[in-house]
Amino acid sequence: MPEADAALGADLSLLADAARAAGRIARRHFGKGPETWDKGDGQGPVTEADLEIDTMLRHDLLAARPGYGWMSEETADGPERLDATRLFIVDPIDGTRAFIDGSRDFSHALAVVENGMPIVAAIFVPMKNRLYLAASGQGATLNGVAIRMSGRAGLDDATVLGSKHNFHDTHWTGGRPPVLQRFVSSLAYRMALVAEGQYDAMIALRPTWEWDIAAGGLIVTEGGGRVTDRRGLPLRFNNPHPQLDGIVAGTPVVADALLNRLVPVSPASRTR
What we know:
Elements: H1 2-29, E1 36-38, E2 45-47, H2 48-64, E3 69-72, E4 86-94, H3 96-101, E5 107-114, E6 117-125, E7 130-135, E8 140-142, E9 145-146, E10 159-161, E11 180-182, H4 187-195, E12 201-204, E13 208-209, H5 210-222, E14 226-228, E15 243-244, E16 247-250, H6 252-261
Parallel strand pairs: 3-4, 10-11, 10-12
Antiparallel strand pairs: 1-2, 4-5, 5-6, 6-7, 7-8, 8-9, 12-16, 13-15, 14-16
């Protein structure tokens, strides 16, 4: 429908502009020792750049779409978002530790979710000037050029992004799968790299925050890939507790093969 496409396009343009604005703030702080705090409870660090970006995004996006709800890693959560048909889900800086350490692999991840499903997404890697965009049913792009998954049709020697603990034998039936493990700091950026075909899949077996994966999930799907939680169940967002049970994303064949090799776990046995 033309009106629906126009609405998606307007939201996509809004997210693209906001992501670039976030990048300008991040570049201003990058490598200059921004003030940093530990959030406690194992949540990791936050910097003055994270908070400045969060404030800007919340102001600009909600001013443009006052009827949308809001979820962000750096904004205190509240139950009012649960009543929103559409909401923004954002991570002001995904890969804050990398940002603090001077790595260029951090990103900004922004999505619009409608009735639990991402419909528009942007991931921006400012230090590499890589802007990934996707809209439901309209494909995914990198800097305006269409992207697609790698198309790998086998597990052997597939390149899979994830931290080392994900590849311990204990997680896998028959031991570690025959893949090449690689690592990138930002979870959102990992998903974008898979969507553009640089890698065949990515995994995160621990509970995963919605703001880390909402944008990347749509970009992978629109790039021709498959995205589920670690049990193979579809992802739905704007949950009362905004965490999902891990994530597996990749080419359909590789993602399915990884899921088939994972050792089943019960909800009570999950490691947070």
